[in-house]
Design brief:
Number of strands: 2
Shape: globular
Low-confidence stretches: none
Largest sheet: 2 strands, antiparallel
């Protein structure tokens, strides 16, 4: 079952992140126009909520039973690593062409990224390693992958309401421990509450056939409660006169959590307005949805910071070629290679 509006939102969010990086790099970060593209972090929260919804909807059967873990794991593995593998290879080739010699990523960072341990160091403390080749957007894959791995564990608990309460308490515990000692485990637990909002919505929709605002109260309340330790930490930093930024810890994490709640509220408000204008705005980006994941992963080094065609000497032509090459890579990796890789690891079940 396809959710047309969700697909359009996914395509819009990926395009927005890509355009935001291009605009801010080329036009600077000041000015009204640039300000319109400074919500890339919020777009990632949209991805998280959509991801939770899609995974819960796709894997649930009957009263929320999950498919066998082995099959679930292989589906998630092929989804992430098919595109990730193509992206790493593409970045290696781009860097090597630019420098006219092989540019190898350090084995430690490559291994860390393969294990999905990467995050961006300049914005958060307690980071194990940075993304390969400086491709900053890869930070969110770290969270997505571990959300995928936590999801089946939560399903071991019977009852959708109990699961939501457990994840909510886990998020609060993550917020407290992260505020005291910043570390990746606590941070994943903290953000898991945001991802679970999407899971909760999918569960409610499958059970009731519709989602009302009251259905969002419990998971969203847990997200808000998980912000309290960060609010205390931000207040303490302000009292001490420390330098802080909306793009760095601890305000960054607080921004992520609060924005996810605001976005959920705006979605319900827009639905109340019968999706006024959606068809002529967000809906226009539905065609990007099939390559939205690969576009998010590849655009940073493929377009924004690409220099491997610098020998051409015509910036506008170079940029156009960067876009074409990146789109072709997106189509190949997500529409063709992903499906081949998945069918190879997960052959279709034979019907007796």
């Amino acid at each position: 079952m396809k959710f047309v509006r969700l697909e359009a939102v996914r395509g819009f969010a990926a395009t927005y992140v890509c355009l935001g990086h291009v605009v801010i790099l080329n036009l600077g970060s000041s000015g009204i126009f640039a300000d319109l593209f400074k919500f890339g972090q919020e777009a990632v929260m949209v991805f998280f909520i959509l991801s939770g919804f899609v995974i819960a909807w796709a894997t649930s059967r009957g009263e929320g039973e999950a498919e066998p873990f082995s099959r679930y794991f292989l589906k998630r593995f092929t989804r992430i690593y098919s595109v990730w593998g193509i992206a790493v290879l593409a970045m290696f080739l781009m860097e090597s062409i630019e420098h006219l010699e092989p540019v190898w990523e350090s084995p430690g960072r490559l291994l860390g990224n393969f294990l999905m341990l990467q995050d961006f160091k300049y914005g958060k403390p307690g980071v194990i390693c940075g993304p390969v080749y400086g491709a900053t957007p890869l930070w969110s894959l770290h969270y997505e992958w571990w959300f995928y791995m936590l999801f089946p564990l939560v399903l071991l608990l019977k009852g959708a309401e109990h699961r939501t309460h457990m994840v909510g308490m886990l998020a609060i515990l993550g917020g407290v421990s992260y505020a005291l000692i910043p570390n990746p485990v606590s941070r994943i637990c903290l953000y898991f509450g945001v991802w679970w909002v999407g899971v909760h919505f999918a569960t409610v929709l499958r059970k009731k056939g519709s989602i009302e605002f009251r259905d969002a109260i419990v998971p969203v309340s847990y997200v808000l409660l998980s912000t309290l330790p960060l609010c205390v930490l931000c207040s303490w930093w302000m009292f001490e006169g420390r330098r802080w930024s909306i793009g760095e810890h601890p305000l960054l994490e607080l921004r992520h959590l609060v924005s996810s709640v605001v976005l959920v509220g705006l979605a319900f408000l827009w639905r109340q307005m019968n999706w006024l204008g959606f068809r002529y705005t967000i809906q226009l980006f539905a065609f990007v949805a099939p390559i939205s994941f690969s576009l998010y992963v590849l655009h940073y080094k493929g377009v924004v910071y690409a220099k491997y065609l610098g020998f051409i000497g015509v910036p506008l032509l170079e940029f156009a070629l960067y876009v074409v090459v990146t789109v072709l890579l997106c189509v190949f990796s997500e529409i063709y290679f992903y499906k081949y890789f998945r069918s190879w690891l997960l052959p279709a079940k034979r019907i007796p």
